[in-house]
């Protein structure tokens, strides 16, 4: 998203794009990362006004990392679109599975919710390198690299993506703008939803990987919607000690969104 824009620096705290898009830098968000003993970036994009609020712009647009289980979103889309996975309640057919899975009945919705590495490794092997590369190239996902690791390229630091690209990917899913069947995109959107009530809808996918420097990298990307007005967000974190992404969501994402007026049906 941002990488396609030309920016004019107006002050230390405000950037305005050469397009109608604009970016506000909010360094007050740093405290939420510090509370979790991590560093990182967060961006919230107001689709209706094309406005960004970002903490740590350089990391957001210039640094790339393995997506970890946040890549399950794209794997699921490919599996559903190709017919390998008939629907979210159906297991991958038995003859495509290694013995580990025979008789387990693991369905897509269960594997997606638990970020089952084994499930998505087998799905990737079933998709195959040629087809996987086709889709990475078609949607321009990150650096588009598989190398020689069809069943681990998304968490072994081969495939990498910037937070900016990850946010753009999530936005396209929401609006059914990816080159997949609408049915496949709708199923994955349903899988992403974590909370849905009369006031708002909160949807996201997390991911965790170990970078080359041994630090833990965390991802959280999704959207919050109130009164049919979606806002998209991405969080990327890094710490030299293990940490829990669900805690990160609670202590970074929630106060940021509440500060913007969400969760009360007032947006």
Q: Main sheet: which strands, in order across?
A: 1-2-3-5-4-9-8-7-6
- For the record, give the distance between the C-alpha atoms at the N and C termini, rounded to a whole number: 23 Å
Name the CATH architecture of the largest domain: 3-Layer(aba) Sandwich
Number of domains: 2
Number of helices: 9
Chain-averaged pLDDT: 87
SSE arrangement, N to C: EEEHEEHHHHHHHEEEEH
Shape: globular
CATH topology of the largest domain: the name is: Beta-lactamase
Helix content: 25-40%
Taken as a percent bin, the fraction of beta residues is 15-25%
Weakly predicted, low-confidence segments:
3-20, 93-103
Question: What characteristics describe this protein?
Answer:
alpha+beta; Beta-lactamase; 9 helices; about 20% strand; globular
Describe the overall structure:
The radius of gyration is 18 Å and the shape is globular. It is α+β, with helices and mostly antiparallel strands and 267 residues long. The protein has helices spanning 30-35, 57-62, 72-82, 108-114, 117-127, 129-139, 163-174, 182-192, 245-259, and strands at 7-9, 14-17, 22-25, 39-46, 51-55, 193-196, 201-210, 216-226, 229-239. It has two domains: 1-64 and 161-267, DD-peptidase/beta-lactamase superfamily (Beta-lactamase); 66-156, 3-Layer(aba) Sandwich (Beta-lactamase). Strand 1 (7-9) and strand 2 (14-17) form a beta hairpin. The chain starts with 6 loop residues before the first strand and ends in an 8-residue tail after the last helix.
């Amino acid at each position: 998203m941002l990488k396609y824009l030309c920016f004019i620096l107006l002050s230390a705290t405000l950037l305005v794009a050469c397009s109608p898009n604009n970016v506000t830098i909010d360094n007050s968000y740093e405290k939420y990362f510090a509370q979790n003993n991590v560093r990182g970036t967060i961006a919230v994009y107001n689709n209706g006004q094309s406005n960004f609020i970002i903490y740590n712009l350089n990391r957001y647009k210039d640094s790339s990392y393995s997506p970890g289980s946040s890549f399950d979103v794209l794997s699921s889309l490919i599996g559903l679109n190709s017919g390998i996975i008939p629907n979210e309640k159906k297991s991958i057919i038995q003859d495509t599975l290694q013995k580990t899975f025979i008789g387990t009945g693991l369905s897509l919705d269960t594997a997606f919710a638990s970020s089952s590495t084994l499930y998505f490794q087998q799905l990737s092997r079933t998709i195959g390198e040629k087809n996987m590369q086709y889709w990475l190239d078609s949607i321009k996902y990150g650096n588009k690299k598989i190398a020689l690791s069809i069943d681990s390229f998304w968490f072994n630091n081969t495939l990498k993506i910037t937070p900016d690209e990850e946010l753009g990917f999530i936005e396209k899913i929401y609006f059914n703008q990816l080159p997949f069947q609408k049915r496949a995109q709708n199923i994955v959107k349903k899988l992403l939803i974590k909370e849905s009530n009369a006031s708002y809808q909160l949807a996201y996918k997390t991911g965790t990987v170990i970078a080359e420097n041994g630090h833990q990298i965390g991802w959280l990307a999704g959207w919050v919607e109130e009164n049919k007005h979606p806002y998209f967000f991405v969080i990327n974190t890094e710490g030299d000690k293990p940490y829990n992404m669900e805690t990160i969501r609670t202590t970074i994402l929630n106060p940021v969104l509440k500060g913007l007026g969400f969760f009360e049906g007032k947006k």
